[in-house]
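step=encode ok
step=design start
structure_in=
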């Protein structure tokens, strides 16, 4: 450090530090601390950590990885048909096919097919957007 540089104000031992301590903003608010204070607290340098130190910290704190939950794509697709708007459209499709054939008229197939195609289009678009979002 240069003579004119401010000295870090943080003292602490990473071996005593827990993950909970780092998340407790009353103890350590990393977002408002000076960079050199954060680096001293975390015992690192601008060049990064050594492989040995990385392995030691990964063992203590765990990997920096989010847990992923695998979802069945077919069930995810069907999930887009399980909402109030879809229920109304499904009811309209049933009405179009079952109840509109009074007076010996044939079922209203064009309306039924149109409603089913709209439901499928809505589900496909929602499914594709959800899959692309990760």
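sequence_out=
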């Amino acid at each position: 450090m240069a003579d004119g540089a401010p000295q870090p104000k943080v003292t602490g031992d990473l071996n005593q530090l827990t993950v909970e301590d780092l998340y407790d903003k009353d103890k350590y608010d990393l977002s408002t601390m000076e960079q050199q204070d954060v680096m001293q607290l975390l015992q690192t340098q601008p060049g990064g950590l050594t492989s040995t130190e990385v392995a030691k910290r990964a063992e203590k704190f765990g990997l920096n990885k989010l847990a992923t939950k695998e979802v069945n794509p077919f069930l995810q697709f069907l999930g887009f048909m399980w909402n109030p708007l879809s229920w109304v459209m499904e009811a309209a499709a049933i009405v179009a096919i079952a109840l509109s054939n009074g007076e010996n008229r044939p079922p209203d197939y064009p309306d039924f097919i149109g409603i089913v195609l709209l439901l499928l289009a809505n589900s496909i678009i929602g499914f594709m957007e959800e899959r692309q979002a990760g």
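step=design ok
step=annotate ok -> The helical segments are 19-23, 35-41, 51-61, 73-79, 84-99, 109-133.
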